[in-house]
Amino acid sequence: MRLSARLTAAAAAGGLLGAVPLTAANATAPAREGAVYAQSGPSGITAKGAYLYDATKGKKLWGRATTTKRPIGSITKVMTAVVVLRAGNLDRKVTIKKSYVDHVKHNDASSAGLKTGDKLTVRQLLNGMMLPSGCDAAYALADVYGPGQTKFIAKMNKTAASLGLKDTHLLDADGLPTSSHKEGYSTPDDLITLARYAMKSTNFRAVVARKTYKLATGGGHHAYTWTNTNLLLGSYSGTIGVKTGHTDGAGYCLLFAAERGGRTLIGLLLNSTTTDPNRRFKNAATMLDWGFGAKSAELRLRSLPAGAPTD
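The chain above was modelled as a monomer; its predicted structure follows.
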């Protein structure tokens, strides 16, 4: 997300396996901002697009506008991670270029705070991309694994096609709007398929389940501390991932997963609201409670460090 939006939000908030395509549900027309829908399923969910999937039983539990294409913000980085993980060589050292740092400055974007000249492994950069939603880390990975941004984006879309994501088209590695104000898009159907695929990777699961990741000075790099923008982690029992997303066009989005009682549920919220960064986490908890059939204690979201990205 853009840094200016992040700061406003912060003030308000205080080896991979193949995927099986899902059956698309009928799309419904989007409602006004903040509208509560009346239907069977979890109550009070205001997102324009939503999906809840039982990965253990292999079935859809509930959804809304599941085939409607929408901007997805930094959920794009899930595909970036998938492309990198499929290529492998996670211990490869990457030297941070000034262009990676300038990318977040020029786009006023969420950042891992990378320092020019630092040498970091791909594995470390995956954490810098997925936890604080570092657009600098995403840009670095795309540059190395393309090589270059154009070739990497082509790989992202080729991978989407190979996974059966027929309504997904990505324009960059981080989910930011382009210079012409265009945004990549996907659907709840496609993103649940992508999440199911990604979560079969032990490397991916390890990254997205972390609340924080710390690197001490040494090995050719500065010290870094990255905090996960997914506030369900550490707040909702059983949460195991996955990724936040936000742009002005996408609104506040969340791809999430949790395990309880031997069951794994994967869910998605697209444009939960354009004004409240925390509503997506509360709505996700409501969806998970409904899916698990058990009421949790009142959700108390953990706090992010001052100045940390919200995404």
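Residues 4-38 have pLDDT under 50 and may be disordered.
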